[in-house]
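On clarity, I found the account of how folds are encoded harder to follow than it need be. Since the whole study asks how a given chain folds, the encoding of that fold should be made plain. The format is easy to grasp once an entry is in front of the reader. For illustration, here is how one protein appears when written out as sequence plus structure tokens.
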Amino acid sequence: MQGMDDRAAVAAAPTTHGPSPLRTAARLVGAVFLIVGVLGFVPGITVGHEHLRFAGVESEAFLLGLFQVSVLHNSLHLLYGIAGFIFASTASAAHKYLILGGMGYLILAIIGMSWNFNRDPNFIPVNGWDDALHTVLGIGMIGLGYLAYRKHRSVYGPF
């Protein structure tokens, strides 16, 4: 009878493959990036859509009239969104996606704020609005990763 109790306990124990806050957060962030990536290609939502270029500062298309985008920029948002769903496969991977992805966005914001776009190579167009958004995204993703991990740990224990 002891073996039966052990199997029931294992079956009832939460796993990192269950619906953890980390996995949910990674999926949510991934969904937002997918939506933004698609909207970057939609005329009307992207002002100056006819001036959308593959890459570089020559692209004069602006998502919501504020954020400078290009085909490459939009494609990176789509890939980042897909990555959110892939990394949501486990709580540990979702945590890494949120923390490292947030750090990546903070680095991108710092680069964006320090480059001289008329002189330095710039294959992904960004402007001041992009830099501000990248800063908020970086801080938000790291914060979400931290808060979701605390919630995950309180329910499931450490990884």
User: Anything to note?
Assistant: The two ends are 30 Å apart (CA to CA). Residues 19-156 form one domain. DSSP finds five helices and three strands in the chain. The longest strand covers residues 61-63.
